[in-house]
Amino acid sequence: MLAGLRAGLGAGCAAHRLRGQRLAHSRTTEKLQQEYDAVVIGAGNKGPGAGCDTCSPQAAYLQQAGLRTAVLEKRHVLGGAAVTEEIVPGFKFSRASYLLSLLRPQIYAELELQRHGLRVLLRDPYSFTPLLEDRSPPRSLLMGHDMAQTQQQIAQFSQKDAQAYPKYEAFMGCLVSAINPLLDVPPVDTAALGQGSLLQRLRALWPLLQAGLALGRQLPHFYKVLTAPISKILDHWFESEPLKATLATDAVIGAMSSPHTPGGGYVLLHHVMGELEGQRGAWGYVAGGMGALSQAIARAAAAHGAHIFTEQAVCHVLLGTDGQAQGVVMQDGTEVRSKVVLSNASPQLTFLELTPQEQLPEDFVRQIQQLDTRSPVTKINVAVDRLPSFLAAPNTHDSQPLPHHCCSIHLNCEGTHLLHQAYTEAACGQPSSRPMIEMCIPSALDPGLAPPGCHVVSLFTQYTPYELAGGQPWDEKARNAYADTVFDCIEAYAPGFKASIIGRDILTPPDLERIFGLPGGNIFHGGMSLDQLYFTRPVPSYSTYQTPVPGLYLCGSGAHPGGGVMGAAGRNAAQVVLRDFRRLRWQR
After folding, report:
1. What are phi and psi of 113, to 5 degrees?
2. Residues near 278 by Cβ (< 8 Å), separated by ≥ 6?
3. Are 538 and 311 spatial neighbours (Cβ–Cβ below 8 Å)?
4. Less Cβ around it within 10 Å: N or C end of the chain?
């Protein structure tokens, strides 16, 4: 669901030297104090950049509840991976994350994000899959919220699939409705299951029992979706390859896995359980780019009195003689004391770099080191001087955006075999020769992102390995060679695309790790496989946001319920911190 001046962006540019520019980032005018109740570490703070899903909703919740809270972000711009950056002069890119759907509805309401400037641009239709085929014009699959129109589109390929699609949507909706409440509460505390009365143990299990009751007879089917390859699930429902490949992209996006890999179903569910303005499964653009969301959350926190700082690098967590977290030490040696510390960084950065190793159990450290953080993603941001014109849906003479330009445009998705082939090449250390490409053109709905007549294009591509075969580096030559492969693919669907390119920003997995603090370049801070979810995210016995260090909490995408621009981990972690605060005060 990511080159510019090498010193500024660390990535190459073939034809243009791109200039990174700082956008407004709602820095507090307050001075950094020596002591707070809570300090929130911006994600990736130990590395050269930062990388979280959004700008610390937990800070707003903590400050709202009366805890004096500071957010310390190393980069010049807030939001981790949810940022807007002007890489090419005049072009504003959602440089990493680029679409909104998963942000929890409670956060919209509780933090009054609309009042703080958030504006969402809904997309309908939302999915466009043009085909390469020996017919003129080639066919395409356009999908939206109008079920009848979507069925007509599917019927081009299969009348049977057109009839099955509403039933598939209803089935997935049932599963999502059942598990959705689990996202908004901490995972069941397994330690509590061995303590207290039977009633207390049942109460601890209640969230899972509720989900099971809601699933009812669908429970075996839910289990199958979670454990089977997504190709098997889709083969059960459909026969047309373009439809199956389009749907399969949501099961493999951001994951180093094939449609034939068992256990990909949860990633699919994860990407269809969002909503926008009451529309389940809807995805949209944030007006002004994804950074505008982080700005709205920052304004909500600041309105309650939170102190938010950029260009403040945390060196390590400060511990007392009793092993309790007592604040943080900044890179310049300044100590900022606090009663609790919340880390929005990945588990690897939090526990392997920011926390003194001697304070952590050896087995815990070993499990953190063994987390699967493989990433197939290379994000390419492109500035173009005109809209792409697809063979399957040519532009009009006035060159105005058409409905499909507002969609997620799926390329190289004629069949699931292409996705598997792309994965197989990357698994052998080679960038895909025909990569899976999700193209988005947010300026089609938000023209202020680019100069008149021009557009910003987001290319979320996979599969690319973190380490290239033979130990070859992801240097400027390798980056640009892969980008050229991607552009050649797009050219086949939309002739003239390559000639329209003004500038490019190429972010391979190592770049995503270095700039945004995403371990291995993984957009979820770690794989979303069944062995790294719920009870076991990030590791067993530490899934409730508390850590082996008293007073230190994990609140980013590496905690339950996982990655994406969701905010749930931060909101849930804030609830746990406030509960612990109340308990501590009661004991005193």
Report:
1. -65, -30
2. none
3. no
4. C
